[in-house]
Amino acid sequence: MMSFQPAAFVGNQARWKEDFRAFSTDEVWARVEEGAGAKLHWDALHIGDVRCNRTAYGFYAGDRYVPLLVEDDEADARFLDRFIDGFGGMDFVAPKGILAARLARAVAREPRVLPVAAGWLRRAAGRAGGLRALKDAQAMTYVMHSFMDARTVRPAWEAMERGETSHPEPAVQETIERLRACSYAMSHPEAGRVVPACVQHSVLDPEENLRLMELLPANEPPPAVTAS
């Protein structure tokens, strides 16, 4: 997996002394695709809100990047639906015997997955250049996370805690929508709940944030990073 987390021009403005420029999510993703050497089909499968996360699953067959799912391929979309029906929630990291039993049980419960899976394998092999190309395939997932500004997270979370799902300020409304779709939650077992990670770090970690201000005072430049 390669995970990209673009730096955000947010937080303590005293830290930002350079003349930064803004760039869009699409611009960042285009550069990731340039490095990958192929189009990355993030729209084929969404994890959380696409304004927060873009994820593209695939593999390299030699130097060729092959997507597991093509976002505008209806056959791939049907395969994904069947796959989730049959294998959704399954942990594939298990001893071979246990995994084989899980797969057999899933196929018995959702046998319609077999013909669409065979079709998907045929398409994947064709994209890779033939079945032989799959022999030494190396899995590769590309992910990009775009975090939110604490200035909108706090009022959005306070509104959500009041049971509200809308807000007159567009930026806060967008944050509410993103928090509601969050796929990365953090547990609070003492309260029997989970909260979005951006809420945890922006709202519920006041002591940790104060400690960070002590470790990284705004009137001092951050430590330089040198290559060895």
Structure, briefly:
The chain is of the alpha+beta class and 228 residues long.
Category by helix and strand content: alpha+beta
Question: How far do the termini sit from each other?
Answer: 25 Å
**Fraction of residues in helix:** 40-55%
Radius of gyration: 22 Å
Number of helices: 8
N-to-C order of helices and strands: EHEEHHHEHHEEHH
Q: Mind describing the biggest β-sheet?
A: 4 strands, mixed
Order of strands, main sheet, comes to 1-4-2-3
Number of extended strands: 6
Integer tally of domains:
2
- Uncertain segments: 222-228
- Which whole number gives the mean pLDDT? 87
Query: What amount of the residues lies in strands?
Result: 5-15%
Shape: globular
Which labels suit this protein?
disordered C terminus; 228 residues; 42% helix; alpha+beta; two-stranded antiparallel ribbon
What does this structure look like?
By secondary structure, this protein is α+β, with helices and mostly antiparallel strands. The protein has two domains: 27-145, no CATH class; 148-219, no CATH class. It is 42% helix and 14% strand. It has helices spanning 25-36, 74-87, 96-109, 113-128, 150-161, 170-180, 197-202, 206-215; strands spanning 2-4, 53-61, 64-67, 138-145, 185-188, 193-196. The strands form two sheets. Strands 1-4-2-3 form a four-stranded mixed sheet. A two-stranded antiparallel ribbon has the order 5-6. Strand 2 (53-61) and strand 3 (64-67) form a beta hairpin. Mean pLDDT is 87; it is low at 222-228.
